[in-house]
Structure formats: C-alpha cells, structure tokens
Amino acid sequence: MSYHLKQGDLIFYAPMQFHTQSTFEKISSSYLTINFKMNFNHADLLCNKIFSLKRDSYFIVTKLIEELSNDNLYSNDLSLCYLKQLIIQMLRLDNSYFHSKPTTHMQQTYENELLNDILLYIDNNIYEKISVSTLCDHFCISTSMLHSLFRKNMNNTAKNYINELKLSKSKELIRNSTHTLSEISEMLGFSSIHYFSKKFKSYFNISPTEYSKSIYN
C-alpha cells in the first residue's frame, strides 16, 4: 500500500514494518524520518495513517527537530518530551472524531460515505478472509475508529458484522445445494468445518447439517 503525504503531513510506521520513501521527480521537497522505541500496546491507533499537523503540532515538531539537532544539556530528555507530546496529540486528534457524535452535516455525510464504502468492500470480498486489520489497512483507519463507526451506526462490531454476513451467505449457499458444507466453509474463509458449524448453530440455533436436511424434507 502506498501513501501520498503533502506538506505538513505525518505518518507512523509499525514496529519492524518494511517501507520505502521517495519524492516526486522534478519537485523539490524534503522529509524527516525519526526512529524510536515506544512501550505502547496500541500501535494500531497510530500506524499507517496520515496525520495533517495543525499549528500547535507543527510547533512541537519544530521544537523536536531543534533539540535533536544540538547537544545542549538535557536535549535528549526534551526531545523525548516533545515526541511524547506529539504522539498524544495525534491520538487525541484521531480518536476525538469518532468518540463523539458528528455535529455537522458535513461530518455526518463523511461518516455515512465511509461506512457505506466499508460495507460494500465487505460484501464484495465476502469469500475472502476479512478481518478488522484488513479493513483498517484498506481504509487507512485505526481499530478504534472502525469499532466506533460500527458501534454508533450499526449497533454492532465490525467482526460480528462480517461473521453474520458470512453466515447468512452460507445459508444461501446451503439452500442452493450446489456445494458441500465443507466446500461452503472453505469458500467463506472459515478456519475449519467444525468452527463453521459451531458459529452457524450459535447464530441460527440449528446446525448446518440439520438446516440442510430440513430443506430437503
């Protein structure tokens, strides 16, 4: 996946993530890359997303670069402080949108369009192994944003929605009676026929075998 950053944009790479960086030909530009270690269990809230720096965040980056560029007393400590402040601001900026109900028509429209695109993607790829991380990577959003979007608008989680759609599709395939249960399980990306049967019975209160027999009867 490729990302196009404009002036004032910022992106975090995941730990151990392979990446390359380049600029457009015949266009004079520069960028700064900083490597750092961070004891943080929610890297998905930051990684592989583009943040557009506002004035206060841009000021922090400027001060961070300034401290990294000199050997003054406690420059390393100040650099860490600025880096932590920048990360916290990005986390707040990223999560504040979906943690509160949109208050403007433009925000609501954006949210609706994003959700529609996600639902369409799931529907078009129902025969693939779709996960929360798959959706986050494809739409360049964090796990928390995805969960908030589904919780607010679907009263559901993305994971449950995917499973429910796959199970509904499996019911349709069983009715068509052109595939075995094992084939259907594999087609829809379930890890095993046993797992598929367990989820099917939990959702429909009947096993896929029993459901198949009921149709023939």
Which terms would index this structure?
single chain; 217 residues; mainly alpha; two-stranded antiparallel sheet
Provide structural commentary.
The model is unreliable at about 95-105 (pLDDT under 50). This protein is mainly α. Strands 1-2 form a two-stranded antiparallel ribbon. Helix 2 packs parallel to helix 5 (about 145-155). The chain is built from nine helices and two strands; from the N terminus they run ββααααααααα.
N-to-C span:
50 Å
SSE order: EEHHHHHHHHH
- The radius of gyration is 23 Å
Are there runs of 5+ residues with pLDDT below 50, and where? Answer: 96-103
Number of helices: 9
Topology:
Layout: E1 9-11, E2 50-52, H1 55-68, H2 75-99, H3 105-124, H4 132-139, H5 143-154, H6 158-176, H7 181-187, H8 193-204, H9 208-216
Antiparallel strand pairs: 1-2
Give a brief description.
The chain has 217 residues and is mainly alpha-helical.
